[in-house]
Amino acid sequence: MEEQFILRVPPSVAERIERLLNENPSSSEDNSLDLSFTDDGRTGTFAIGNESFPATLLDLPTVVESYKTYDDTVLIKTADVGQIIMVRDEGDPAPEGVEYRHGLTPPMKDARKRRFRREPDLNPELVQRVEKDLLKIMSGGAVENIL
Question: Which residue range or ranges hold the TAFII55 protein conserved region domain (predicted)?
Fold first, then answer.
């Protein structure tokens, strides 16, 4: 398995990265790319040339499988990707929370809310009482009141 990540950048930054990867490495322009995170491991800075952009590490709502092919026929699974590095322009607001609400494609928009089972509304006191009763029954005791 390889180590992989998804890097989502603004369109202007994507054009600069593509130009940087396609041009001759001996050009006079500063060809540096750098990604560094702070101590919390979730926020950081993405630098390209002399410009820097804020970056955030977010969890995806689902795991995405990555594949590669050597002969355009057979696909080989190379990684499970569960996080995305979101680079944004300086004025854009930071995402809330540690999970990215949307997946990678438009059908996964707000996926956690639309596609996954919701947590049941349970009273924590009721759960604790049932747990105590089950432990009493398993130890050979009797339950005092059922309702």
Answer: 1-144
Residue 19: inside a domain, yes or no? Answer: yes
For 29-82, the pLDDT digits (tens) are: 567 889 999 999 899 999 988 889 999 999 988 888 999 999 999 999 999 998
The count of other CB atoms within 10 Å of the CB of residue 88 is 18
Range of the domain at 54: 6-117
Burial of residue 83 (number of CB atoms within 10 Å: 0-12, 13-18, 19+): middle
**Inside any domain, residue 103:** yes
The C-alpha atoms of residue 86 and residue 17 are separated, in whole angstroms, by 15
Position 142 in a domain: no
Does the predicted model carry a pTM greater than 0.85? Answer: no
Provide the domain count of the chain: 1
Taken in order 90, 91, 95, 98, is the CA torsion positive or negative?
Answer: positive
Confirm whether 122 is domain-assigned.
no
Contact (CB, 8 A) for 19 and 9: no
Element (H, E) at 54: strand 51-69
